[in-house]
Amino acid sequence: MHAIPLTAALIRGALELERTARGLLPHRLPARARAQCADPQLALAESQPSGVRLAFRTRATTVELDTLPTKRVYTGAPPRPDGVYDLLVDGRPAGSATLAAGDTLTIDLATGSAEHRTGPVGTVRFTGLPDTVKDVEIWLPHNETTELVALRTDAPVEPVPDRGRRVWLHHGSSLSHGSDAAGPTTTWPALAASLGAVELINLGLGGSALLDPFTARALRDTPADLVSVKLGINLVNADLMRLRAFGPAVHGFLDTIREGHPDTPLLVVSPVLCPMHEDTPGPTAMDLAALGEGRLRYRATGDPAERAAGKLTLAVIREELARIVRERAAGDPALHYLDGRELYGEADSAELPLPDGLHPDPDGHRRIGERFAALAFGAGGPFAGTAGRGPAHSRWAKTTRLSV
Q1: What is the CB neighbour count within 10 angstroms for residue 120?
Q2: Rg of the Cα trace of the chain?
Q3: Per-residue pLDDT tens for 117-151?
Q4: Distance CA 155, CA 131 (A)
Q5: 273 with 349: CB under 8 angstroms?
Q6: Nearest CA among 252, 253, 239, 251 for reference residue 307
Q7: CA distance 10 to 152
Q8: Residues 147/149/152/157 CA torsion (nearest 10 deg)
Q9: Which residues contact 45 (CB under 8 A, 6 or more apart)?
Q10: Span 236-293, pLDDT tens digits
Q11: Are 325 and 239 in contact (CB under 8 A)?
């Protein structure tokens, strides 16, 4: 087996790689952004490598990857399944693996306390790959912080050359992050990227799509041919702002993105249907009664009457986003709007209800991914054909930093 140095040239989907005591930790927000917010939820979300994958060209028939994942344990809740590593060979699914080893983060949702315990490094191994030159991708678990420790193959590797694909940069909430998807290649953005034949950079941040200026700057500074932002649900979850602040915050977020992407197709997506928050404000709370029964479920704690005081609901947010995009698009023809209910609406809620009240199940992710691909990348969509300036991957790869 050959020991392969882990370098930025072999890693896609991360904005920064941090050198740790045991390996490399992919980050989906740069250090400057992380330094501007001490929220542990954000720190957890951005370090979970949704959309991050190793990509290389090789004749190897065996690949071994040593990693140190961080397992999350929620006190009183059912055990979470181990994170999934998905293998693609020449773009097609070729296997998956899980890893039981790793650190453990125990979180008490009732008190907000957390305890971190160190654990051992583990190895995922893929064998029986075809003995031909091929492009190999290993997609890291979308929902487990994962340090990369070592890579070994039984033949030399080289970075995958630029295939001329457009780079799609997406930001959203836990739905975009991939909550409750079956694996990293079956989150709805990963599915849509595969169907749209684009390279994905997923800045879906569970619980943290909050119109933060540092996130807008990260989007601004990341080369891309296509950009989308899915906004709304986390603002209701956190009861973060009122209607008076929401509009200017959206304008500022879009203004910042446009500083780095003045002509890039930019798609604003409003929330998918979430019945409990359509007309009821947040904050969102854990349903402790369900938790006591071993089930994970959320509930809305706001009062619909509070809308008169400017509290946000999903219905209000959709109306405002549609208005803002309509007005801005008069001078920005590359700006587009998509109502999230076209991805998951009332009929879908009846057929595929959100199991915990907030997040789609694997079938829901597939439906949303397929619909987004058809609406955004299909004929007449904002990302159709060759819209955009051409491959940004080489520009983006040069900006992926290795920090010490």
Answers
A1: 9
A2: 21
A3: 999 999 999 999 999 999 999 999 999 999 999 99
A4: 10
A5: yes
A6: 239
A7: 13
A8: 70
A9: 174, 177, 205, 206, 207, 208
A10: 999 999 999 999 999 999 999 999 999 999 999 999 999 999 999 999 998 878 877 7
A11: no
- What number of other Cβ atoms are within 10 A of residue 306's Cβ? 16
- Distance, in Å, from the CA atom of 194 to the CA atom of 53, rounded to the nearest integer, reads 14
- Mean pLDDT for the chain? 94
Give 197's contacts (C-beta < 8 A, 6+ positions apart).
165, 377
Q: Do the Cβ atoms of 189 and 177 come closer than 8 Å?
A: no
The H helix count followed by the E strand count for the chain is 12, 22
SS (H, E, C) 95-141: EEEECCCCEEEEECCCCCCEEEECCCCEEEEECCCCCCCEEEEEECC
Q: Residue 170 in contact with residue 18, Cβ under 8 Å? A: no
CA–CA separation, 246 vs 323, rounded Å? 12
Which pLDDT does position 163 carry in this prediction? 87
For 73-120, what is each residue's pLDDT tens digit?
887 777 888 999 999 999 999 999 999 999 999 988 777 788 999 999
Q: Tokens 């809740």 appear where?
A: 77
Cβ-Cβ contacts under 8 Å for 182 (sequence gap 6 or more): 84, 362, 365
Give me the residue label for tokens 């955004």. 376
Distance (Å, whole) CA 392 – CA 44: 28
Confidence band for 388, pLDDT divided at 50, 70 and 90: very low
Task: Say how many C-beta atoms besides its own lie within 10 A of residue 29's C-beta.
Answer: 26
Instruction: Record the pTM.
Output: 0.94
- Alpha carbon of residue 118 to chain centroid: 26
Band (392; pLDDT cuts 50, 70, 90): low
Do 261 and 222 contact (CB within 8 A), yes or no?
no
SS3 state of residue 154: coil
**For strand 401-403 and strand 16-19, is the pairing parallel, antiparallel, or unpaired?**
parallel
Sorted by sequence, the CB contacts under 8 Å of residue 377 that are 6+ apart come out as 192, 195, 196, 197, 198, 383, 384
- Measured CA to CA, the distance from residue 135 to residue 57 in angstroms comes to 4
Is 70 within 8 Å of 114 (Cβ atoms)? Answer: no
